[in-house]
């Protein structure tokens, strides 16, 4: 992302990200977990295949196994027995014969080729080939053809997906070496905040950030320590920071980092550790704080719900990935035709919320979710992507091509 035209005095997103990644330590402790418990965990070691996959030469078809060279002298091969999946042929293969074989069954010694049953006709004398196989090895899957014993299957830092668990199981791996879960303490600040279920007083709002951030933290595979909502009170906030720092590897707060509030939170954070308050050249999400406490790192998200989500996804999440030693590919950005006009002033990189779909020609199209205020959480909820507009960009007209960044849907 280029921020060449970012407003003066604001920090480009990539610069913020670089600082976070350089200054966030990587957790090195690891543990061994059962295969069924390793979803979304980060590998602490390379995985080397302990076996060949497939483990033995086997048939890719239901048909007959035979020695290819036998076809020079015979056109009918008498049947000598059978090989089924899990029940290999036991005897010694008589020359000039064939074996009934099923998909996945072991290729008997003394045979090298399989003909599919549709290309044969059985008779009293044996099996007649109606179509001659082209070469030895036809329809045979070789041992180690998919994965050879000793080869690297996953690298350290890989984040384990559902299908990876299947692959690990197919290698016979029962225990998986993973980085220990990182602990993230979370609290929100603000006298106006009420809990869902409580009644709102005049001027109150519900604390939504903590719930959204907590859910995203769980998706990231972290252990969340939820310290609740804390009053805008010097000693309460100080206590919360001290407790969070004692218990967690990372501390995340929402609210209290914009200009109005920053002063006393800033004082507390700088009494305990060192924190910088950033004004980022992104919209939404201008204020963001990053700090180092005695035992943990600190990410201060802005209070506005959309800003909190965007800064979490764009800054805190990559820093936490780094902390977990996770090597995740960067978010995929795709071009799409924007079917609605978008308002934008040049100056900041914007993450507008969009709904991406494909039209009847299979082309990607995106529309805005509507009003883009940083407090409008519904814009985030309706969206399935960000429309990423570079700093230099002004208004977008309907029909122009824009870049979109898909939200994660980590089923696989
Ligand atoms: P602040 O950054 O504390 O000045 O808050 C900016 C705006 O975000 C204010 O309108 C707050 O009421 C709102 N806000 C702060 N914290 C939260 C929260 N946890 N959930 C929802 N909105 C919040
Ligand atoms: Mg506040």
UniProtKB/TrEMBL annotation:
GO terms for cellular component: cytosol. InterPro entries: MoaB/Mog-like_dom_sf, MoaB/Mog_dom, MoCF_biosynth_CS, MoeA-like, MoeA_C_domain_IV, MoeA_C_domain_IV_sf, MoeA_linker/N, MoeA_linker/N_sf. Residues 185-322 form the MoaB/Mog domain. It catalyses: adenylyl-molybdopterin + molybdate = Mo-molybdopterin + AMP + H(+). It comes from the Bacteria. GO terms for molecular function: metal ion binding; molybdopterin molybdotransferase activity. Keywords: Magnesium, Metal-binding, Molybdenum, Molybdenum cofactor biosynthesis, Transferase. Belongs to the MoeA family. Catalyzes the insertion of molybdate into adenylated molybdopterin with the concomitant release of AMP. This is Molybdopterin molybdenumtransferase. It comes from Endozoicomonas numazuensis.
């Amino acid at each position: 992302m280029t921020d060449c035209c970012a407003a003066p005095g604001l920090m480009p997103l990539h610069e913020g990200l670089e600082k976070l990644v350089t200054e966030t330590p990587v957790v090195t402790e690891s543990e061994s977990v059962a295969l069924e418990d390793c979803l979304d965990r980060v590998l602490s070691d390379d995985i080397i295949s302990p076996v060949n996959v497939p483990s033995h030469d086997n048939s890719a078809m239901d048909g007959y196994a035979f020695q290819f060279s036998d076809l020079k002298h015979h056109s009918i091969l008498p049947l000598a027995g059978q090989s089924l999946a899990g029940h290999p042929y036991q005897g010694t293969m008589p020359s000039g014969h064939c074996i009934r074989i099923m998909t996945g069954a072991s290729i008997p010694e003394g045979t090298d080729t399989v003909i599919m049953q549709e290309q044969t006709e059985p008779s009293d004398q044996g099996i007649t080939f109606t179509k001659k196989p082209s070469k030895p090895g036809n329809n045979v899957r070789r041992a180690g053809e998919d994965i050879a014993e000793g080869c690297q299957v996953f690298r350290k830092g890989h984040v384990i997906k559902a299908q990876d668990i299947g692959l690990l199981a197919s290698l016979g791996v029962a225990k998986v070496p993973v980085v220990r879960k990182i602990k993230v303490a979370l609290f929100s600040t603000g006298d106006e905040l009420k809990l869902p279920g409580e009644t709102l007083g005049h001027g109150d709002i519900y604390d939504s950030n903590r719930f959204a951030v907590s859910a995203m933290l769980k998706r990231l595979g972290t252990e969340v320590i939820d310290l609740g909502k804390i009053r805008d009170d010097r000693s309460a906030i100080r206590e919360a920071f001290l407790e969070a720092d004692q218990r967690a590897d990372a501390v995340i707060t929402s609210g209290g980092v914009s200009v109005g509030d920053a002063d006393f939170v800033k004082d507390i954070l700088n009494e305990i550790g060192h924190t910088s308050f950033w004004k980022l050249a992104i919209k939404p999400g201008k204020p963001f704080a990053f700090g180092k406490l005695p035992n943990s790192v600190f990410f201060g998200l802005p209070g506005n719900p959309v800003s909190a989500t965007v800064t979490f996804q764009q800054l805190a999440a990559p820093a936490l990935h780094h902390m977990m030693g996770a090597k995740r590919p960067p978010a995929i950005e795709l071009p799409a035709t924007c079917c609605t006009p978008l308002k934008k002033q040049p100056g900041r990189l914007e993450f507008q919320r969009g709904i991406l779909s494909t039209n009847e020609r299979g082309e990607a199209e995106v529309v805005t979710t509507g009003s883009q205020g940083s407090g409008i959480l519904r814009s985030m909820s309706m969206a399935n992507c960000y429309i990423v507009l570079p700093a230099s960009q002004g208004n977008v007209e309907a029909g122009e091509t824009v870049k979109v960044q898909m939200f994660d849907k980590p089923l696989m």
